[in-house]
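[Discussion] Sanity-checking designs against the backbone

I'm trying to build intuition for which residues belong where. Below is a structure token string of 328 positions. I'd appreciate it if someone posts a full sequence so I can compare it with mine line by line.
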């Protein structure tokens, strides 16, 4: 029964997140909010909504491993799975903003996350710093970007739903996210207990994969349609939101207690695939993430899963990366 509830919760999360984005964008269109603002606020937040709701629910219900592992695992799968699979289907164009601004912000957030969890808890003030950095990042993105005025007047940018229906869908989607997260977290904990595996393993594999499904599905569909506007920046932006918004908001609501030694390997791997991505998107010769590079990213994801599922001795390896700061 737990497996059935897990699938139901996953389906609710995926579709609720999808309709939340669509209805949110529709409301924004009704009020003539520029495409740029919609992209870096409503869409970015909407695609991270499953991670946010799952993490808050997990932290409040006494499963901080799921709250934290969900974000770290999702960031790894976004790069090693979503971008990799998409690049295998069609080469992905890389914009300068992706490696000049977005990637450094994502890497900074990852490093700060590692440092902030050295004392085995992500507390209110650390979470507040992450969230404040997100606000500064969004403000900078708006100020330094030029909205496409022509595209805002395009027929394709008309509201998808009527205003009243849009609000109804937002409310229904929010309820679906909350209920889906409840089913997903509770069933994941029960499955982990039944299989005799840790909540960390469940969170960074199954739960993380599930909350990354919206990005994976959207990217594959766009790639199969040979749409050339698939953006690496969207995935990097999602990773930024996962750390700064999901963990930031969750940690301000309730401190996230984690075993830093147990999660060190996962955070290190998250930073490793981020560096690997940078080497591929930096414009040495091309401005595309090609199939070979996508294959290597996918291989890194498979190796990570093999290590996690295979029961690799993380604690002894993670202790190599562990150190303490004088004020902790």
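Best answer:
Here's mine. Compare freely.
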């Amino acid at each position: 029964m737990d497996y059935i509830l897990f699938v139901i919760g996953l389906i609710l999360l995926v579709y609720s997140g999808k309709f939340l984005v669509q209805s949110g964008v529709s409301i924004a269109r009704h009020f003539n909010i520029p495409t740029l603002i919609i992209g870096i606020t409503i869409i970015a937040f909407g695609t991270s909504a499953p991670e946010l709701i799952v993490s808050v629910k997990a932290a409040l219900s006494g499963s901080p491993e799921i709250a934290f592992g969900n974000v770290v695992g999702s960031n790894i799968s976004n790069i090693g799975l979503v971008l990799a699979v998409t690049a295998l289907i069609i080469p992905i164009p890389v914009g300068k903003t992706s490696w000049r601004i977005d990637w450094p912000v994502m890497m900074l957030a990852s490093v700060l996350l590692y440092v902030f969890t050295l004392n085995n808890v992500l507390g209110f003030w650390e979470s507040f710093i992450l969230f404040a950095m997100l606000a500064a990042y969004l403000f900078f993105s708006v100020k330094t970007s030029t909205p496409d005025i022509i595209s805002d007047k395009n027929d394709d940018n008309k509201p998808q739903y009527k205003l009243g229906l849009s609000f109804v869908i937002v409310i229904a989607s929010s309820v679906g996210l909350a209920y889906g997260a409840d089913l997903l977290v509770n069933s994941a904990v029960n499955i982990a207990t039944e299989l005799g595996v840790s909540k960390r393993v469940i969170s960074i594999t199954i739960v993380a994969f599930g909350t990354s499904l919206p990005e994976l599905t959207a990217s594959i569909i766009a790639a199969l349609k040979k749409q050339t506007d698939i953006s690496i920046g969207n995935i990097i932006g999602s990773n930024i939101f996962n750390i700064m918004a999901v963990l930031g908001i969750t940690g301000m609501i309730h401190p996230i207690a984690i075993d830093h030694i147990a999660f060190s390997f996962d955070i290190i791997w998250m930073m490793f695939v981020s560096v690997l991505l940078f080497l591929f998107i930096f414009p040495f010769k091309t401005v595309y993430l090609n199939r070979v590079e996508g294959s290597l990213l996918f291989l890194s994801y498979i190796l990570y899963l093999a290590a996690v599922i295979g029961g690799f001795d993380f604690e002894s390896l993670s202790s190599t990366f562990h150190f303490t700061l004088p004020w902790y």
